Amino acid sequence: MTLLALFPLLYSVSVFTSTYSPISSFTSPAPFVAEVCTLQNSFKPAFVSKGDYVVGGIFPLHYNQEMPDLNCTYKPPPVKCNGAFRWAQTMRLAVDEINQSSELLPNYTLGYKIFDSCAYPLTGQRAALSVLNGLSEDDSPTCSGASPLLAVIGESGSAQSIVVSRILQPFRIPMISYFSSCACFTDRRKYPTFFRVIPNDDYQVKAIAQLLVRFNWTWVGLVRGDHEYGRFAVQGLMRELQGTRVCVAYQEMIPLLYNRQRALEIMQVMRSSLAKVVVVFSAEGEMTPFLRDYMMQNITGIQWVASEAWVTASVFTGSEYYPYLGGTIGFGIRKGHISRLSDYLQTVNPTKYPNNLLVGELWEALYGCSPFPTSISQAPPCSGQESLLEQHSAYMNTSSPRVAYNVYKAVYAIAHSLHNLLLCQPGSGPFQNDSCAQSNNIHPWQYYLQEVTFNIAGEEVDFDLKGDSVPYYDIINWQRGTGGNIEFVNVGLFDGTKPDGEELVIQEDRIMWTGHQSEVPVSVCSASCLPGSRKAVRRGEPVCCFDCVPCDSGKISNQTNSIECTFCPEDFWSNKDRTACILKKVEYLTYDSLGIALTVISVFGACLTLAIFGVFFYHRKTAIVRVNNSELSFFILFALTLCFLCSLVFIGKPTSWSCMLRHTAFSITFSLCISCILGKTLVVLAAFTATRPGDNIMKWLGPKQQRAIIFSSTLVQVVICAAWLIDAPPFPSRNTHYERSKIILECSVGSSLAFWCVLGYIGLQACLCFVLAFLARKLPGNFNEAKFITFSMLIFCAVWLAFIPAYISSPGNYADAVESFAILASSFGLLFCLFAPKCYIILLKPEKNTKQHLMGKERK
């Protein structure tokens, strides 16, 4: 029984000796004559050549198949295919070169049997079943001895290769694919005899993932074909994108049998999505009708990322494709050089192949006429002598073959492995008892494909343990050519043999993007968060969809798309844009506008006090100076001068000495001033309450007693200050709590108790002085100083009572300014209340500066 008897799809047993008639089998059966095995249907090869060893070839010589109606009531018509055949010619060329070589397979010839798969798994299955038979289906050898077929070159699509490989596997016939890149073929348990000269898709998806990350395309769409190639490629890409910033907006699938309604639904998703970058894992045959409808929908602005299956498809080079597909970028398989290919393609003409329908279809596609006129063909007749020109670029462009170069390498791989097998020396062979294969009875499983290594056109070809070849891709960009057609421009490469992170090399300045733009297109769900903000993921949406939230004060983000804002160090603060930490602004009462104003006021007050001191000293012998106790007046003026000047200590950068001097200086000087006023008040009260001359009360308030009162009252404050400085002196501190964006340099009081004690003691002195002066305010006399002392103490107390809440609520330099202002205000209050009336009389009313006037005894 022939091999085809194992496959009932092609053969069936008939009981008729005559030609099979479908109608007669359902009407009246003929009398039984003999049981004969008759060929019921035929699947003719495209090209056949005899040789010592036969190699099968399965190519998608056509695309866009139309399946017949299989209702089993009549003989089914053949599958109608429409559409290409340069790859098959490349295989024929390689076989011819090998047969003419004196170094490779001398004395032996290779034959071939090439079938069309129509880029469809079912048709590919039929081609695989046919290729298993001999050169002729009518005269196939029996299933004995070695197989007439030693290896198969094929298939293009991964879906077809899966079918073909599984059919060949029981016979252990090796298969070398030139265009099936599915990662699924690395499983040696399922595909033990599968090899390929195209890189594994695991490398392609790795390259595409790096490309998406490189151009910051974080929101992309995925479109794939309905086959293993597309499914495994998408799974691999999703795996590679894990841990990156790239998210998938949608996944769509083009039906294996093209459905226009489904395609329009996919296009609507593409049109409405924010994803302007679409990655496509599909074959040329599926993309052709899809892109035709895509152009009819007039969709533009999509940046296509093409897989190697269609990125170099010549069918898309027409000028009509450029407005929609221009700028497409993708990874193409490595190109090579086949020196004789162009001349060999030109040898194809209808005269040389008068019965080959493929040549007739080629002529119809190139010239629009038919060299084999039939009733089916509508094209006008051709002479068949037309010359193939360079203008037929889809067929004649051999400047950079890629898939054809893979076919070329695959044929040479088989030839080299067969050559190595035939060179085997008995006793050193790889088989049982170190035997070698018999040259006239070689089995397919005896091939050395796994170990084959050879060099072709400067490239080393070999296979790893999984049957894969070197992972290398050219990066292809679709650009407008001089004639308006699309040209495939090489703009980089991906070398999978290099270390991680170094595989991708791109010349970005040479890339032309979609819409004929030189700027990289943007494809994001959300615009990038600029430095100074962070990403806040939207609930229920992918991580690529987010809102940008500005960083809080004191936090920064100095990178685009930061997830978190980081705190600035303690002495630093965020700048206005929240992009960098800058040193916090250090604030203290310096010589700015406020500091200068306080300085001017302080110096003016001191100068004014000294001027009054001069006036009093100059008129020290006049009645008003003598009556008001000139010595105490000079003490008060001296103390007020110190009070005015001590406010200067509050201006400038705090230091250890200035901090200790600030509070002690002003407390002691004010205590001295109030002590002098207290002494003067006691003198006034004693003087005006004496009932007769020589009362003992004045003896106790003489000059010595007055000095003792001033000294002892001031000494108490000095002791408090000394204890303060010894126990817990004031010190400079950095306040970062009141306002986190600034460092406020201030003087910490050290001991709050001591601070409030010195203020409390001054307040006690002022209150005592106020009470005594208040009691003496109505005593008789033209110049009763008690009235002015009462008013001065009232102002003094009011200023310092207002100071306390203002000081507590004021930060840093403003607290110092408040305290300095309180010192100046109270000093001016004392100065004007105590000495302005006297200066007025001394300078402007000298006639009243007499003892008689002051005693109220002048003549009227």
TrEMBL record:
CDD domains listed in its UniProt record: 7tmC_V2R_pheromone, PBP1_CaSR
Highest rank taxon of the organism: Eukaryota
G-protein coupled receptors family 3 profile domain ranges (all copies): 594-858
Record carries keyword Cell membrane: yes
Pfam families according to UniProt: 7tm_3 (PF00003), ANF_receptor (PF01094), NCD3G (PF07562)
Subcellular location: Cell membrane
Coiled-coil annotated spans: none
Gene Ontology terms, MF aspect: G protein-coupled receptor activity
Topology term for the membrane: Multi-pass membrane protein
Gene Ontology CC entries for this record: plasma membrane
InterPro entries listed in its UniProt record: ANF_lig-bd_rcpt (IPR001828), GPCR_3 (IPR000337), GPCR_3_9-Cys_dom (IPR011500), GPCR_3_9-Cys_sf (IPR038550), GPCR_3_C (IPR017978), GPCR_3_Ca_sens_rcpt-rel (IPR000068), GPCR_3_CS (IPR017979), GPCR_3_vmron_rcpt_2 (IPR004073)
Signal sequence extent: 1-17
Keywords attached to this entry: Cell membrane, G-protein coupled receptor, Glycoprotein, Membrane, Receptor, Signal, Transducer, Transmembrane, Transmembrane helix
Family per record: Belongs to the G-protein coupled receptor 3 family.
Full protein name: Olfactory receptor C family, v1
Organism listed in the record: Lates calcarifer
